[in-house]
Each structure stands twice: as structure tokens, then as C-alpha cells.
Amino acid sequence: MKKIGIFASGTGTNFEALASSDQIKSLANIKIMVCDKTGAKVIKRAEDKNIKTFVFNPKDYANKLAYEKEILEKVKDLDYIFLAGYMRILSKDFLEKYKGKVVNIHPSLLPKYKGIESIKRAYEAGEEYIGVTIHYVNEEIDGGEILAQDKFKVDYNKSLDEVEGQVHDLEHRLYIKTAAEILKGEK
Ligand code: GRF
């Protein structure tokens, strides 16, 4: 069994997808869910699954180095860290320690639409296809080697909300599939 951690900041539907997947459960133990937002919905999701959590408020620390030091103590010896809507940039030092072991999901066909509001921007630009990317994390925002992408043709009769829903469904499927491949050593 591999040992993994999931980092999240918000609603946690991707966390939920990974943590509920029988395939993922057969390959890895989720040792910890790390969250930088007190009160985020993802915290209850982890607690309901009896997954250990580390919730911190960055404002309680002098700087990034200080809170990452504490995170690193909590995430000792993990095989992989999956970011699932974690809204903070990991430092160079952190990424050095977990080189090639931190994976992120982003709701766009990278390298297009890096950063926030990616789905809205792609929708408003009238993109024919909208999709999802899973990639290794490096120091560049939404950079790093691409591991998997999937997309669908946008039906502009659908509202932005509906298209966002489609993207999130696709995210959950692709994250489970790709995480399983990584855990099996196939990626
Ligand atoms: C997802 O769209 C993910 O791709 C992005 O942040 C969002 C998190 O959603 N990085 P959730 O918290 O997993 O529901």
C-alpha cells in the first residue's frame, strides 16, 4: 500500500472522489488531509471518513517557511501528495523534498487558462473544447509535466454553471484514473 496525502482548501469534491474510490482505497492509504482554510467544507468530508486532518491558518505563522515546516512534519514519508483545489503555492524547498511526488488537478486544458476562473474564461472565450489537466507540480503556477488530459465539446445551450458541473464530473473521473495509474507505477 502506498501512503498518500491530499491537500485541499475548499469544497473538497475532488478529495471526496479520491477518498471514496474503491480503486484508490485498494492502492493507498490516505494518511492525512491538509487544509489551509479553517471552516472549509473539505474538513468535514475528511472527518466523516476518519481521515486525519491538519488544518492551519497561514496568518498564525511568521511566513510560508514556518507553516510548511509544520506541514512537512505531519506529512513525513508519504509516497505522493495529491493537490485537490489547494490554493497555495508550495515553496521550492517543499517541492525539493517531495520532488516528482506532488500532483495537481487543474480545470483547463493546460497550458491554456492557468490560474483562477479557468472554466469561466474558457467558456466566455467560446472555446470549442473545455477540459481538465493532471500534472506534476513544479515552482511555476499550473506548470509541470502533464500526466493526463481529457476534454468535451462545449454545448453553448448550457449555462456556465452547467458546464462547470460537467468539468467537475470529468475532474473526478480523470483524477481517480490518473492517481490509480501513478500509484501502480504506470505513470
Ligand atoms: C477544482 O476545479 C480543481 O481543479 C481546482 O480547484 C477546484 C477544487 O474543487 N484546482 P473541489 O474543492 O475539489 O470541489
From TrEMBL:
Per the Swiss-Prot or TrEMBL record, the active site comprises 106 (proton donor)
- Which SUPFAM superfamilies does the entry link to? Formyltransferase
One Gene Ontology BP term is: 'de novo' IMP biosynthetic process
InterPro entries the record matches: Formyl_transf_N, Formyl_transf_N_sf, GART, GART_AS
Classification via CDD domains: FMT_core_GART
Look up the record and name the pathway of this protein. Answer: Purine metabolism; IMP biosynthesis via de novo pathway; N(2)-formyl-N(1)-(5-phospho-D-ribosyl)glycinamide from N(1)-(5-phospho-D-ribosyl)glycinamide (10-formyl THF route): step 1/1
UniProt keyword Transferase present: yes
Gene Ontology cellular-component terms for this entry are: cytosol
A Pfam family assignment: Formyl_trans_N
Q: What is its EC number?
A: 2.1.2.2
Q: What is the top EC class of this enzyme, as a single word?
A: transferase
Keywords associated with the record: Purine biosynthesis, Transferase
> Which parts of the sequence bind N(1)-(5-phospho-beta-D-ribosyl)glycinamide?
12-14
Per its database record, what is this protein's job?
Catalyzes the transfer of a formyl group from 10-formyltetrahydrofolate to 5-phospho-ribosyl-glycinamide (GAR), producing 5-phospho-ribosyl-N-formylglycinamide (FGAR) and tetrahydrofolate.
The name this protein goes by in its record:
Phosphoribosylglycinamide formyltransferase
Q: Which organism is it from?
A: Anaerococcus lactolyticus ATCC 51172
